[in-house]
Amino acid sequence: MTTSSNYTRPPPSATAQRSHRGHDPYDGLEPTLDRMTRLDTADPDRAGIREEAIGRCLPLADHIARRYAGRGVDFEDLLQIARMGAVCAVDRYDPARGRDFLAFAVPTILGEVRRYFRDQGWAVRIPRRLQELQARINHLIPELAQDLGHLPTARELATALATTVEEITQAMVAANGFRCDSLDAPAADGDENVIPVAADRHGDIDPNYGLLEDAATVRPLLAELPAADRRILALYFYENKTQNQIGNIIGCSQMHVSRTLNRILTTLRHQALPGRSTARAA
């Protein structure tokens, strides 16, 4: 027999590809589910096959639940939701479409988990239209995944839902709005000795806050000063006059202006910072 040198081996199937990573209990479920759907719903054998299929899918549900752990919801509740998604995947899978079960089960379980997070509330308020679009996307992804044989892209979702890619992208990004991280939580990176917090990378202390506090403290104290003292302060600090110029304006010596400024500022300091002034004097 002569073998052509141009023969190209066909690409391995999804089941063959998975065989390289080891055997999972949910692998090869398609024949089992096909046998189940051919039986009448009242047939006791159908219930047994269904129970077996669900049991083989539970490790997949548990794996997905662990991926979403630590996001503000109880893990046991999350595990139950993921397992409900596995039950839905077994019940909704249509072997007649000839698609891989895993490609249908994963988005189905993910949809149930994400819907659970959505229903628990949003840490960031998301527009209602995006919440509703996100729900439609979660419902549609399993069906498209089974028809297409892969997770649908944003463009494929937009075509199926008669909307734009931008809307789909916004809705999928908005799905993260149920959770927000603390600014005091350690950042993901950093050297071995220092673990920075997120706040260190997103802002700094504004020195103007201190100026605002000082201004709010001294404002009523300035209002209680005699008009002559307030005028000297205004000439010196706001009009940038020298002590000699102030003396010429109000008709006194530079030395008198210096002593007056020192008296006013000492009085304001004692009134605004009584504890510190006493400690400094001691």
Considering the chains and any ligands shown, give keywords for the structure.
about 280 residues, mainly alpha, about 65% helix, disordered C terminus
In a nutshell, what does this entry contain?
By secondary structure, the protein is an all-alpha fold. The protein is 63% helix and 0% strand.
Description of the structure:
This protein has 282 residues and is mainly α. It has 13 helices and no strands. It has helices at 14-19, 30-37, 44-67, 75-92, 101-119, 128-148, 154-161, 165-174, 207-223, 227-238, 243-250, 254-272, 274-281. Helix 3 (44-67) crosses helix 4 (75-92). The model is unreliable at 1-22 and 276-282 (pLDDT under 50).
Strand content: under 5%
Largest sheet: none
Count of individual helical segments:
13
Termini separation comes to: 109 Å
Multimeric status of the protein: single chain
Give the low-confidence spans.
1-22, 276-282
The helical percent reads 55-70%
DSSP strand count: 0
Query: What is the C-alpha radius of gyration, as a whole number of Å?
Result: 36 Å
Mean pLDDT: 78
Form type: rod-shaped
> Which structural class matches the secondary elements?
mainly alpha
**H and E string:** HHHHHHHHHHHHH
